[in-house]
Amino acid sequence: MERERDRYQRMRASLRAVTMEQQQHSNPRCTHSDSTILLVALWAALHERPISWATVSSNWPGDLRPRPPAPGQPGLPSQSCMSRRLRFDQSVLELLDAWQAALRQQLGNSDVKLIDGRGLVIGGCSKDRDAGFGYTAGTKAKGYKLHWIIDAFSGAIDGWLLAPMNYSEPEAARCLIPHLPAHTRYVGLDNNYDRNDLYEQAGVEQGVQWMAMPRRNAKGLGHRQHSDWRLAVQPWLRSEQGRGTLKKVRVTIEQVNGRLGCSEVGLNHLPHHARRLHRVTLWVAVKILILTDLQAVTGRRACA
Q: Which of 14, 125, 163, 175 is deepest in the core (most CB within 10 A)?
């Protein structure tokens, strides 16, 4: 309980700083502020509970529970209010993005990024209509897949996309390329992303060198026409130096996966209350906030 309490207080302080810096104003027709909505969602995620649990006053310590906006009004929003605001209120979503960006600024930022996918499995008998069957970690399962952009050196998450498990990784990469940070120069990937169209899109649209590891059993590229961006990097990718460098850099993905699934973050699976795409997206967004805060804290400790 003390661990969740300390993390909540630290993240609440960062949210308040973002709100003051951006002079964020909630909709005057709404009883509860945007920051209160996000803090209730954070409290639920920290304790691995549904949001309805966090809307009950008895589940909060008295000194941490949000104060009523006015005398005679409830201090906590109702479950229906939370559901409506988190799904449809654009100002809440904008504040969530700004909060993530503020936490992200505490980490390092390099010009080398990584893109990969992580499966989030649910039970095969689930009636979730948005989930799909697909491959993850060499097995076929039902659920969703988190596709993300990771900084190769700090492990910070620069962008992400949640999709059904059967949504292909190349298609997800096509959606993520426009959201690469402006200073990105190189993107390292595994051989699932070794496609001409991705090399061309990244190079022409973003000026980024795509570097997908070729398959070991591939003798060459074949005789069809290839992107110049793909041809230019092939000698280095097929050299021992290239293979060794990509393998070493992509260790960062395994480290981030490990932190995401650790007990302090808890995204090694989807809980039973996180079903349907909009709910899973919110759950993942708050968990990535917690992960970013954990990365910042452990980074400061390492430097101390």
A: 163
* 8 Å CB contact between 186 and 111: yes
* Residue that the structure tokens 């893109």 belong to: 115
Domains delineated in the chain = 2-104 (no CATH), 112-271 (3.30.420)
Residue with tokens 């280095």: 236
The amino acid that residue 154 corresponds to is S
**Can you tell me the distance from the alpha carbon of 258 to that of 251, in angstroms, rounded to the nearest whole number?**
11
Could you tell me which of 159, 139, 142, 163 has the C-alpha nearest to residue 150? Answer: 159
179-233 pLDDT, tens digit each: 999 999 999 999 999 999 999 999 999 999 999 988 776 666 777 788 999 999 9
In the chain, what's the furthest Cα-to-Cα distance?
A: 75
CB 98 within 8 A of CB 137: no
Token pair recorded at residue 136 = 């993850």
